[in-house]
Amino acid sequence: xxxxxxxxxxxxxxxxxxxxxxxxxxxxxxxxxxxxxxxxxxxxxxxxxxxxxxxxxxxxxxxxxxxxxxxxxxxxxxxxxxxxxxxxxxxxxxxxxxxxxxxxxxxxxxxxxxxxxxxxxxxxxxxxxxxxxxxxxxxxxxxxxxxxxxxxxxxxxxxxxxxxxxxxxxxxxxxxxxxxxxxxxxxxxxxxxxxxxxxxxxxxxxxxxxxxxxxxxxxxxxxxxxxxxxxxxxxxxxxxxxxxxxxxxxxxxxxxxxxxxxxxxxxxxxxxxxxxxxxxxxxxxxxxxxxxxxxxxxxxxxxxxxxxxxxxxxxxxxxxxxxxxxxxxxxxxxxxxxxxxxxxxxxxxxxxxxxxxxxxxxxxxxxxxxxxxxxxxxxxxxxxxxxxxxxxxxxxxxxxxxxxxxxxxxxxxxxxxxxxxxxxxxxxxxxxxxxxxxxxxxxxxxxxxxxxxxxxxxxxxxxxxxxxxxxxxxxxxxxxxxxxxxxxxxxxxxxxxxxxxxxxxxxxxxxxxxxxxxxxxxxxxxxxxxxxxxxxxxxxxxxxxxxxxxxxxxxxxxxxxxxxxxxxxxxxxxxxxxxxxxxxxxxxxxxxxxxxxxxxxxxxxxxxxxxxxxxxxxxxxxxxxxxxxxxxxxxxxxxxxxxxxxxxxxxxxxxxxxxxxxxxxxxxxxxxxxxxxx
Length: 678
Prior knowledge:
alpha/beta
């Protein structure tokens, strides 16, 4: 308790007691409960049970016309409609599990989707968007309607049993549009000076407070800075906060814009510092009234950092977004002395893909007329190699608001003898969950350490969160009654004679080494980390997929002059949106050169011989060459071991020897299959 005494300290707001200072941020859309109610309710329940002081439903727009996205069509605020009992159930689930229950309300304003009920989005001023949509500037009558919509929906939330509402005023939504000098160019009393630009948001807040009374909590999320030239900055929000006394109880400090999600830090990545909005909160804290409590969100994944922010009196609350997916038990573990067992978010962009921002991706999308539907179809096709789809890399248990199907696990009929071959993430996951089901587990690993292909993380300067996760997976196995045999190769005879009821084969993959003359001179990507000095000043990386790009970044940070050679017409074709932008921005920042539509024809002592798209050839001088041309599944070897298992033995292939994929898929494979043992 003493180690996190500030984070764990209670606070009372409007007669409601927050049992600690951790808020589970709204994620997803509350309207999802109309189509995937059970998993959505489960998400809310997990967070409330997991110890967060406050849990907020995902955002919902204040009407289904000018405020809404095209896919939203709920009957809020009609208390006789089908959504109202669903809302009541959500509030009850949160409160019955010990948390303050909040409903988030939003209005998209000028960036709203065009749909049959909203052919012309509303915004501070009239203009024609880049997509051709005509935005209508707010009139007084339109303002009155929006004010009434927020009041009606806040009262709806109150009648449904929620303790309060969180009004989304950040990320480029309506409030942010009025506050922004870039977007609000009105010449009347609602534009021009900051005092005028804040006038309409304050009118909404005053009306909502009057409507709901003094016993109802009102939270407001804002972008502490738009992080965009000409937009709102922290000093503007600090001044705005001085007008919130008596209106807003907790001011959430986020940042950025929904359609510039990575570069404005609406979402941060592994290349961004943790706690990325803290400096904004520090500026705003200096002016914010004492009765307006301050919270901050943004890449926060540790109780240590959360404790320091509060103990330093920068904020009163710490708000967790993606981290609440990674570990909804975050606060229980913190309170019970188990902080070292927290799944800490690795900011891999798996749960939220964000927006397209990098020029090269935008050019690619325009060239091939790629639609959102086409992107989703591609993702679904990629995921089809797995029966179930991973939503969170570090937490296979989460259902991702219902997007990801999970089986109903059978009851255990008795303890089974389980043999797991391979100590990578898939094997570690299977061992942990099989042991927790009461089975007798032996894990065999041919090398002298666990962790599989992730050994390279020992020397990776950026992926320290992923390294911590790998080490956590290893520690969880070591802490359990699991027999671990290192430096042991499970040949066919071993499998045949072991006497297992269930065998999990998680033997992984090996680097692809295509028949290029001189390929033996290269270093596999996983072995290149930390070897910058050995490779030399000029390094060529063969392969511009995600592995090659990230290896190039590591070597550039080690001081190498790096060039990537890629056969496709664009780097990192398997990534999109924020996952693409964050890596490409880093490549641009480090000055890493690249050749696309280019193949390597040979590696010689002089360097790398290449042939470009137009047929011209050249030699790239290289002191060292790294091979990042992909991985080859050891499926054939796994199938030989499978054939050696005695008749009646259940054998399952996990991880890369089943299908080459990401860490989260290997983790999910182990979790699912271990829980299917009867």
